Amino acid sequence: MIFLKTIRLVLFLCAVGSLFACVGDKKTSLDSKVYSSTADADCPLGDLPSADELNITGLIHFNINVRDYSRSRDFYRAAGFTDQIGPFPETNTIEVSKGVGIDKLYRMHAELIHLGSLPDGPVDLTVPTGRLIDLIDWKDPERLEPPYSAINHLGITYFSLKTNELDDHLSRLIDAGATMVVGPVRETSGDRAAMIRDPDGTFVKLRQPAVSFSQGAGDRIDYLNLNVRSFDCSQPFYEMLGLEVQNISQSEDGAELLQAMGLGMGTEKLGRMMRHKVDGFRVKLNQWVRPTAVGEPYPPPLTHLGIQRINCASSDLESDIETLKRHGVNFISPIAPCCEGDASTFGFIIFEDPDGIYNQMLGVITPPNQK
Predict the structure, then answer these.
(1) Cα(241)–Cα(60) distance, rounded to whole angstroms?
(2) Number of domains the chain contains
(3) Is 341 among the domain residues?
(4) What is the mean pLDDT of each run of 10 residues along the chain (371 residues)?
(5) Could you tell me the CATH number of the domain that includes residue 123?
(6) Which domain, by its residues, includes 101?
(7) At 267, phi and psi to the nearest 5?
(8) How high is the pLDDT of residue 310?
(9) How far apart are CA 50 and CA 238, in angstroms?
């Protein structure tokens, strides 16, 4: 078991109308022909391995880049992330820098923040829990471009948290620096929902289920939201990583929240809620129909404000990398030994999904000085 003393190895592990970019005025119906008009575009990744050919055991964390660590830590503590692990070393090797798309030694402040209280005793961070965010304040190089302003932007636009006390939760977050976007609204499912922005502008959704959940059952991040061009391209990619489709929805999915954001009755999108077969972490894929998704995911280096990467655990990292390379997956650098130079026993590598959204794998490697 990798205990707490080695946890530094997993580090890499506007107005309402502006929240949504509208394209075109023509009404588009939700039928199979509409879906295929987007999905028929050539996929950069055609022949992918099955989940059984890889060794992905679930989500370690996803990453949020922030401008002011102290301010953001107060906000996420109010959101429920009461404990943290770190801080991590301010800099590292050039191989680690290149692993996140930086060609010089970086400086940053980073901690892993944990939803709820950490368990007593040693912590094995190679075991996915669905409770961690890698919160990073990049000092050098610094990027101050704001996070996505449109909810239908390609990329990872928001994450959702469950709560039994939505109004109280919102009040605490506003006191901690949140900007209210819209809500609460009652959705068709019976859930109540609201959308806010964190102090840097990253979207965060709060969802109060129609049926209350027991204490402890909600101490997992609800889901991570990804906007993609085409399910035909993206769904097989995330199935390869071990995610399985739970349900399929059309434009009624979250329609009340979208309408409250000023998006209109004509908004149409398709949804796929996916759940990891090992650790149960959920990812929601959205394919926007009217209007379509806009923009491109954040480019490298991986220092842009907002949610930029998803980090999964691999029980056989070197084998998984070779498998993905054979199938044409694009990596931004060679594997980065982390974080003890040539003696490192862990490594990470970052790769792109079909839309250029960054995913990461972390696992045990053969130390470079033993090769």
Answers:
(1) 13
(2) 1
(3) no
(4) 38 39 35 38 82 94 97 97 92 94 96 91 80 96 93 96 95 97 89 96 95 71 96 96 86 64 75 93 93 92 96 94 95 88 87 96 88 75
(5) 3.10.180.10
(6) 1-315
(7) -65, 130
(8) 96
(9) 10
Q: What are phi and psi of 238, to 5 degrees?
A: -75, -25
- For residue 326, being part of any structural domain is answered with no
Lookup result for tokens 């045990």: 364
356: in domain: no
**263 to 1, 25, 34, 260, 272: CA distances (angstroms):** 49, 13, 20, 7, 21
Q: Give me the amino acid identity at 191.
A: D
pLDDT of residue 121: 80
The CA distance from 253 to 268, in Å, is 9
Tokens at residue 249, please? 């929805």
Structure tokens at 138: 């990049």
Q: At what angle do helices 69-79 and 166-175 cross, to 10 degrees?
A: 170
Q: Of 367, 363, 360, which is closest to residue 101 (Cα–Cα)?
A: 360
CA distance 252 to 106: 44
